[in-house]
Amino acid sequence: MKTLDLQEIREKLDRIDREIVSLFEERMKVVGDVAEFKITTGKQVYDGEREQQKIEDVTGMVEDEFRKQAVRELFTQMMTISRRQQYRLLAEHGLTVKNDFQPVKSLPMEQVRVVYQGVEGAYTHEATLQYFGTDGEIYHVQSWEDVMKAVAEGEADYGVLPIENSSAGAVIDNYDLLIKYQNYIVAETFLTVNHALLGLPGASTQDIRTVFSHPQALMQCSEYLNSNRQWKQISLENTAVAAKKVVEEGDLSQAAVASEIAGKLYGLNVLKSSINHNKNNTTRFIILSRKPVYREDAQKVSISFELPHKSGTLYNMLSNFIYNGVNMRMIESRPIPGRNWEYRFFVDIEGNLSDCAVQNALKGISEEGLNMRVLGNY
Fold first, then answer.
1. Sign of the alpha-carbon dihedral angle for 75, 350, 366, 36
2. In the prediction, which pLDDT does 264 show?
3. Taking Cα atoms as reference points, which of 271, 119, 136, 148 lies closest to residue 202?
4. What DSSP string runs through 55-118?
5. How far apart are CA 313 and CA 320, in angstroms?
6. pLDDT tens per residue, the chain (378 residues)?
7. Nearest-5° angle of CA 225, CA 230, CA 232?
8. What are phi and psi of 159, to 5 degrees?
9. Angle, alpha carbons 132-138-142 (nearest 5°)
10. Strand, coil or helix: 255
11. What are the backbone angles phi and psi of residue 60, rounded to the nearest 5°?
């Protein structure tokens, strides 16, 4: 048997690679013909049953188990690339994701009603003032769902909700509310959160036995609070409500974790300032409207979609971003009520709804996933 030297081996591999590329180019031309057929007939690009049969056929041509798996991965990837090519061709013919979003130069900000959850002095109140100033009519409600209802029913023009904290992570209940109500994210604002331990005038840290605050605030200050093991920590609906409770009950042994602004508003003293362990603690708030509009200069798109709990489904879905050069900023998952082991994903991507790359990616997700929704472009 002749022994090949390294140069001969490389030349042989180069020849095979050229043949593979040539066959790939030929295959992609046929994919273009398939796209033209689907454009004419209105047939969907994604045909899961056909793709699965094709993968079974090609893997059946290989006996070795390692190479069988390799062929499966290779053709799965090739199918994905082929779909991306078809979506591009469909987009060139104007067959993109249909939506009701309208671009606007700016959001109406004069004589608007804005609703937030909590009471005056809460961080959401601060975020509302930070974004809208004092020109609009600002009012508060008891729960996050009340905010969504007020916007959906037209009682408020905009609603403000916390969605993510740099220390504690996602506010998962509000992701669920984004699905329950047909409101749209039209803007966002970031608020630096600096928690203080607030007590009644005359109280000291030695007097404290009970601390009230929102669960995330307690979490964000856990290092300091847990170092005082004699303190009982009790969760309330928000930080300002905690401050208000301490004032109303007038008990020197009670304290609240809230902002120093809330302390001044309710007449509490700062017993310890800046007790959150992450000094860069920031909360992202979303601004919601019942109208599907987006600023012409918007650079972030939020979407949701559903997937079954099967190997490779999420990877295949996210490849829509990869092959269109769309950068993903965030992903969260939530279980779908009543459907065990199936999940709804929330994804933020960079871009604008007018971008061809974004449209191509959304077209792929709308065909390959379930119940895809554009939650906003802002």
1. negative
2. 96
3. 271
4. HHHHHTT--SHHHHHHHHHHHHHHHHHHHHHHHHHHHHTT-------EEESS---SS-EEEEES
5. 12
6. 566 789 999 999 999 999 999 999 999 999 999 989 988 888 888 888 898 899 999 999 999 999 999 999 999 889 888 988 888 888 788 777 778 899 999 999 989 999 999 889 999 999 999 999 987 899 999 999 999 999 999 999 999 999 998 888 899 999 999 999 999 999 999 999 999 999 999 999 999 999 999 998 999 999 999 999 999 999 998 899 999 999 999 999 999 999 999 999 999 999 999 999 998 989 999 999 999 999 999 999 999 999 877 777 898 899 899 888 999 999 999 999 888 888 999 999 999 999 988 998 999 899 889 999 999 999
7. 65
8. -125, 150
9. 125
10. strand
11. -70, -15
Note the pLDDT of residue 1: 57
Give catalytic residue positions: 283, 285
First to last CA, the chain: 67
Say how far apart CA 318 and CA 171 lie, in whole Å.
23
Structure tokens at 85: 């090519």
* Cα-based distances in Å from 376 to 236, 299, 300, 352: 30, 11, 8, 10
Please state whether the predicted TM-score (pTM) of the whole model is above 0.85: no
State the amino acid at position 214 in one-letter form: H
C-alpha closest to that of 198 among 123, 252, 120, 119: 252
Q: How many other β-carbons are positioned within 10 Å of the β-carbon of residue 324?
A: 23
User: What gap in Å lies between CA 360 and CA 62, rounded to an integer?
Assistant: 34
> Which token pair is 5?
């030297």
CB atoms within 10 A of CB 102: 10
**Cβ-Cβ contacts under 8 Å for 303 (sequence gap 6 or more):** 346, 347, 349, 362, 365, 372, 373, 374, 375
